[in-house]
Write a structure and sequence with these properties.
By secondary structure, the chain is of the alpha/beta class. Helices cover about 40% and strands about 20% of the residues.
């Protein structure tokens, strides 16, 4: 199970979010990518090991560039932290079908809670699949 963090541009807010994520997801395989070219190349590799991609997008142009990769995000759970709450950015954000959207100006607590639930839920499903007893007595 792994977590991919994409951060562009690197700002004080995005760096704080990244540090909070790394602190609360210790023990997971985590990659951090800082430019769109590297992300595009990474998404062309086998994605089976990427469970969640967190995109920390510090401005509208980085969101637009990220959304252009939406075809490569199929099968990956996406979480977005965008630069501001505006109708245009929210509409654009939904192009990649994120599981959660927050603003970089907000506290990271909600994002961390969502990530922990997503990642621990995934681990629980992988470690102990539910067994159904269909025998009749």
């Amino acid at each position: 199970m792994s977590l991919l963090i994409y951060m562009e541009p690197v700002t004080i807010s995005s760096r704080a979010f990244c540090e909070a994520i790394l602190t609360h997801t210790q023990g997971l395989v985590t990659e951090t990518i800082l430019d769109i070219e590297t992300l595009a190349l990474r998404l062309q590799e086998p994605k089976s090991e990427i469970n969640v991609l967190v995109a920390l997008l510090g401005d509208a142009s980085s969101l637009e560039t990220f959304v252009a990769l939406h075809e490569h995000l199929e099968g990956i759970k996406v979480v977005l932290a965008i630069s501001e709450w505006s109708t245009d950015l929210l509409v654009l954000s939904h192009t990649v079908h994120p599981r959660f959207i927050t603003c970089l100006d907000a506290e990271s607590n909600d994002l961390i809670a969502v990530l922990q639930k997503m990642l621990h839920g995934e681990a629980a499903r992988q470690v102990s699949p539910m067994k159904l007893d269909i025998s009749h007595e």
